[in-house]
Amino acid sequence: MLYSSVPAHEKRAAFRARLASGELIRMPGAFNPLSARLIERKGFEGVYISGAVLSADLGLPDIGLTTQTEVAGRSAQITRMTDLPALVDADTGFGEPMNVARTVQALEDAGVAGLHIEDQVNPKRCGHLDGKQVVDEDTALKRIRAAVDARRDGNLLIMARTDIRAVEGLAAAIDRAKALVDAGADALFPEAMADLSEFEAIRAAVDVPVLANMTEFGKSDLFTVDQLRDVGVNIVIWPVSLLRLAMGAAERGLDQLVGEGTLKPMLDDMQHRADLYDLIDYEGYNAFDTSVYNFDVRK
């Protein structure tokens, strides 16, 4: 009932331990707090908080228009709803290295287990669009050093994302990856890899956990968990998948209303009222204080 009873520092420690075990961690993207709870219930190991999803949720393109406070606020809403560790997209850190440091502490306060900072020019754009620009290596390393120095909980995972593969090629991505790890990054997110061999090459180049982004309609093929595990990937995210599924279903429902004036034929496609009430734990709230609210949950 209410929010997660697992403190943030325990989620971070558990996340670190799971990564150290070599187990592959699956982190679907939560587009709101309720979907985070569903991700946990379905047995996944973590929750991802996507900057692209937050932008889309606000009706904005993913081109650096969201703010640090918006990302921190949504992160807090999601992390308190689940016992799972949450990894959040912190874009470029929302400014210069000092801004990166403040971003890290704001997200730490929001309860995340980890965050990633990328090496795109600020303001950034979606990692699977053409026309990206990356900063020079010195600037990229300063962002990571600032992030590492700013954290107060040593278990907060500082992940470096590099977008240089799409700009300068795989060799440049490998060189940038090594430099980011040397600067203190705890994990690496190589964006827009072309195939499994490229993930394998990154894996061989660094000795920290590596993340694979399995976003649909992007530059990377949609590899299976087993395929990615076989080449040494440690974390897999599906950042926008649940939002795409939900919006696709919403569009089909609205089309049904326009065409037929009723949603009765689509009832089997909907989450049942009883399942929704179970997910949000109506009964738990009822039992918590029946002297204030005493109601029967409709089935």
Can you give a write-up of this model?
By secondary structure, the protein is an alpha/beta fold. Helix content is 45%, strand content 11%. It is built from 13 helices and 8 strands. A 5-stranded parallel β-sheet has the order 2-3-4-5-6. The chain has a 3-stranded parallel β-sheet with strand order 1-8-7, with no helix packed on it. Strand 7, helix 10 and strand 8 form a beta-alpha-beta unit. Helix 8 (170-182) runs parallel beside helix 9 (196-205). The longest helix is centred in the C-terminal third of the chain and has 20 residues, at 241-260.
The number of distinct β-strands equals 8
Uncertain stretches of 5 or more adjacent residues? none
Distance between the termini: 19 Å
Strand order of the largest sheet: 2-3-4-5-6
Largest sheet: 5 strands, parallel
- Number of helix segments? 13
Radius of gyration: 20 Å
Secondary-structure-based class equals: alpha/beta
Secondary-structure element order, N to C: HEHEHHEHEHEHHEHEHEHHH
